[in-house]
Amino acid sequence: MTAVPFPRQPSQPPDRNGASDVTPVFALKELVARLNREQHKIQDLLSSLGFALRSFNNLNQFLELIPLMASRVTDADGGALIMFRPNGQVKLERLHCQDNHWGQEIRKALEAAMRQVTTLFAGVPPAEGLTKSPQAIAKLDHQVSRFLGSDIQIFGTAILVRNIERGRLYVFSRDPDYTWTETRQKLVRLVADQTAVAIENDELTVELRKKERLDRELEIGADIQLRLLPRQCPNIEGVELAALCKTASRVGGDYYDFIPADYGQIRKPDSENESGRWSLTIGDVMGKGVPAGLIMTMTRGMLRAEVLNGHSPARILQHLNQVMYADLENSNRFVTLFYSEYDPKTRILSYSNAAHNPPLLWQAETDTIERLDTLGMLIGLDAETEYQDAQVQLSPGDTIIYYTDGFTDAANQHGRRFDEENLTKAFQLACRKYDDPQMILKYLFECVQKFIGADKHNADDMTLVVMRISGENRR
Questions:
Q1: How far apart are CA 204 and CA 185, in angstroms?
Q2: pTM for the structure as a whole
Q3: Can you give the pLDDT at residue 305?
Q4: What is the pLDDT at residue 98?
Q5: In Å, how far from its chain's centre is CA 115?
Q6: CB–CB of 364/474 below 8 Å?
Q7: Which of 152, 181, 205 is the last residue of a domain?
Q8: Most exposed among 262, 275, 281, 455, judged by the fewest C-beta atoms under 10 Å?
Q9: Which distant-in-sequence residues (6+ apart) come within 8 Å of 38 by Cβ?
Q10: Helix (H) or strand (E) holding 29
């Protein structure tokens, strides 16, 4: 228990023998009364600080009270709150003095002390300055005491936020009989701790608002990206399609598209059955999140413009790579892309690959799987990369899956990857069981989910497009 000094007694006339009329009982009552006053003072302090923390949305309003409350609760003449800025500056945040004239003298003394300390640490980087140096704090205390003078009874304590000293709270009295008892020091520290809580709450609120703004921007970005992906699969003569993209985060780097290969189809996109050529493409930007999403959006726009030039798949990839190289070479991000064009009249699929996962073709007549691949480097890696053209003749019942590496790289709890071999087996089994591309798509997603765990979320974007040539299976 903190020792409390014996209270001063009111002056009373001595008795006939010269002795005081004060009795031990009277002195004890005075001591109890003083203890009660101290207890009520602490309770009032805590209540006032709690109310201020709950009520003030502005940190400056709360800081305005700190020197005032610290001085009143300790029966001192004034208080000062000095804060340390991230740039290394020392600022007199708030000052309270009962005597305004004396307060001006205190302000000048404190500002002189801060200038002295700032000068001493002028060459020290902010990260190593006042907030990191106990010697600097001690120097500040010494300068404050020196400039205020030896007649001022002063006590200072730290404002600690997340174990970093962010400022000092000083309380002072010019009463020569004033002493800084342990109780008074504890009260000042209590006010300083509440100040630290208020500062931290304010900073957390700022961070929360920034996060909320970022979340809103991500929601907008995700919505824009979702709108850029095909809303539905087109009606292509002799073809059944299904597609789905699952992003690992709100904004992903996977891309797939169905692009009419001539201007006439663009001008009449709502026709029930298109007999013209269609481009089917799938891609993946290295990385995830907003940067990948931005590059994906750029890739989509450039590719759609390039398709209408009527070049072969290899030439389209070559032109796209040359255009995007300048934008991607300094970003350390690249794009894998598989581009194909299907002609419903001939059932020929022409394609070229820029280092993307080769689509898998299930041939209905032979129940075999073929990889559709050509040589070619990543988009954005080398401006002079050459790409190759290839073709495949499709037949009724043939089915192709375009996919991203989110399928093959999906890992289970033991670290094993789903890999292309498992995907190939699952795809072949799905083609034997289902004629509907939507059922095949659903089955493959379920296989990967079962592999990684029903309650797990894949760490990478997953995109799958299923293309089936209409007609009877001739097996």
A1: 29
A2: 0.62
A3: 85
A4: 82
A5: 38
A6: yes
A7: 205
A8: 455
A9: 4, 183
A10: helix 24-55
